[in-house]
Specification:
Blueprint lengths: L2 E6 L6 H10 L5 E7 L10 H11 L6 E6 L3 H8 L3 E6 L2 H17 L4 E6 L9 H9 L10 H14 L1
Helix pairs in contact: 2-6
The structure holds adenosine-5'-diphosphate.
The site of adenosine-5'-diphosphate has 16 residues, from helix 1 and strand 4.
Length: about 160
């Protein structure tokens, strides 16, 4: 049984993230989306809200689970007996950061392997940060996030207003 973890902030979960998950489950048997709690980025949704939203989005895929996590990703992998990490690459600009994480994780847990999925051209410009910015100023992001994420963002905007 090949079980992989897909860690990230997912604030919010975009079509780019969903595409990675859909492609990963063609290769591995199960994917756990691990939603980072200890992120320094300013967040739109709390980690628990993100977990709930992503669970709704991946409901059609029984082999995909969503869990919050804090601390080291390698500890999450040890606890869940996972040795495959999934990450996405959009452009060269992602490379240095992903490479640094890869090298550090490999040092901390040598038998951990990282699988990288390149974003297709339709998703390569989608980033959670930009989606948040555009939505904040009322721009249309309907083709960049799953419908349930869009709804949740609209609800959040209305509550915050
Ligand atoms: P992090 O804060 O760990 O970078 P993100 O939620 O921004 O978390 O992204 C999680 C992973 O998904 C990262 O490997 C990131 O490069 C990748 N990713 C983000 N957006 C896209 C996209 N549009 N297409 C492909 N991969 C993506």
């Amino acid at each position: 049984m090949r079980h992989a973890v897909y860690p990230g902030s997912f604030d919010p979960f975009t079509n780019g993230h969903l595409d990675i998950v859909q492609r990963a489950i063609k290769i591995v048997d199960a994917v756990t989306i691990a939603v980072l709690k200890n992120t320094s980025k300013k967040s739109m949704f709390t980690p628990d809200e993100r977990v709930e939203i992503i669970r709704e989005v991946v409901r059609p895929y029984p082999q995909v689970k969503v869990e919050p996590f804090e601390g080291l990703m390698v500890d999450f992998c040890r606890t869940h007996n996972i040795r495959i990490v999934i990450r996405g690459l959009r452009a060269v600009s992602d490379f240095d950061y992903e490479h640094a994480i890869f090298l550090m994780n490999r040092k901390l847990l040598p038998d951990l392997e990282t699988m990288f999925f390149m974003a297709g051209s339709e998703n390569s410009f989608i980033s959670s940060t930009i989606v948040k910015e555009v939505a904040h100023f009322g721009g249309n992001i309907a083709d960049q996030v799953p419908p349930f994420v869009l709804e949740s963002m609209q609800k959040k905007k209305n509550t915050d207003a």
